[in-house]
């Protein structure tokens, strides 16, 4: 017989584990199915999470798994490959396990597609970074580079100038004519040097970034490079369920209410599954919010059913 749960949580990152913790403490039979691909896996530490500042992401997840286990929440390492909505949700994992759930939390996050420049992928999360709020303090006052991926990268170049006054903005495949007069004025005011020309590779010596090399042969000494990966939301399961998505400059994300409820009755989403800018602290908060809404939803549903008997 197919196992039945009150809630299945798809994704075991900060959002999924936070939801599972609240659900377990509310005495709801909960299963977490985690593919084991957290977005922040390349990073050695996470910042800006009060009381957890500087903690390695892997340690954070280990503690979360221990905490949910105290309340009887089950966690399996697997990938959900199919989900269907009937009276309940039917969830199918790659390993062959099929379960049913009255409610569903999708916390599948997103993937970062990095610029195709030699060395960027290998150094990502070390001295190739994307978020100054996550890593700016640790690399403060070092020589920064910013690798443009579009004219919108001007914003990143301006933001990182809060952490270093030695910033060079490498236009890469962006033409200088694509920058507005306001962009150029702000870059000049921030002391950011604009460097035209395509970047071909990163120079690495003794396992650390030392320079940015251009196609015309010059090398600019830099010890940190910021870039903006292209976010790819992992919304496949929600799309199969028919959830409404809305387009943003950073991809298509599900339409949700303030608790994370999607347009599919009984299906919530949290964390980077609902937006590009969700940091770990936001994701944990979103999972908590979704779970508390689910507890109330199930309770009222059951009370209404009992009252009609």
TrEMBL record:
Cited InterPro entries: FAD/NAD-bd_sf, FAD/NAD-binding_dom, Ferredoxin-NADP_redctase_2
The record's Pfam families line, in alphabetical order, gives:
Pyr_redox_2
Q: Give yes or no: UniProt keyword NAD.
A: no
The chemistry this enzyme catalyses reads: [thioredoxin]-dithiol + NADP(+) = [thioredoxin]-disulfide + NADPH + H(+)
Q: Domain FAD/NAD(P)-binding spans what residues? A: 6-285
- The portions of this protein that span the membrane are 6-24
Q: Which UniProt keywords apply?
A: Flavoprotein, Membrane, Oxidoreductase, Transmembrane, Transmembrane helix
Q: What is this protein called?
A: Thioredoxin reductase
Q: Which organism is it from?
A: Streptomyces variegatus
UniProt entry tagged with the keyword Membrane? yes
An example Gene Ontology molecular-function term: thioredoxin-disulfide reductase (NADPH) activity
């Amino acid at each position: 017989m197919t196992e039945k749960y009150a809630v299945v949580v798809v994704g075991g990152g900060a959002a999924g584990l936070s939801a599972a913790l609240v659900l377990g403490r509310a005495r709801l039979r909960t299963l977490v199915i985690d593919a084991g691909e957290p977005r922040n896996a390349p990073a050695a530490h996470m910042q800006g999470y009060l009381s957890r500042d500087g903690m390695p992401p892997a340690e954070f997840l280990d503690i979360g798994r221990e905490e949910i286990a105290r309340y009887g929440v089950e966690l399996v390492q697997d990938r959900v490959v199919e989900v269907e909505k009937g009276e309940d949700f039917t969830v199918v994992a790659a390993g062959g396990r099929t379960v049913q759930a009255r409610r569903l939390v999708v916390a599948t996050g997103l993937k970062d597609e990095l610029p195709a420049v030699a060395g960027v992928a290998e150094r990502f999360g070390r001295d190739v970074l994307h978020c100054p709020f996550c890593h700016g303090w640790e690399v403060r006052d070092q020589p920064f580079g910013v690798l443009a991926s579009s004219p919108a990268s001007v914003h990143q170049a301006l933001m990182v100038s809060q952490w270093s006054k030695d910033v060079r903005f490498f236009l890469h495949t962006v033409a200088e004519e694509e920058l507005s007069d306001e962009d150029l004025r702000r870059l000049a005011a921030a002391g950011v040097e604009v460097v035209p020309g395509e970047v071909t590779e990163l120079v690495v010596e003794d396992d650390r970034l030392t320079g940015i090399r251009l196609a015309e042969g010059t090398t600019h000494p830099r010890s940190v490079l910021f870039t903006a990966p292209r976010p790819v939301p992992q919304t496949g399961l929600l799309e199969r369920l028919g959830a409404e998505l809305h387009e943003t400059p950073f991809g298509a994300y599900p339409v949700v209410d303030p608790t994370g409820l999607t347009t599919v009755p009984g299906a919530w989403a949290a964390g980077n599954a609902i937006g590009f800018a969700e940091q770990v602290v936001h994701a944990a908060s979103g999972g908590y919010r979704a779970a508390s809404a689910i507890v109330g939803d199930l309770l009222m549903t059951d009370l209404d059913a009992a009252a009609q008997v």
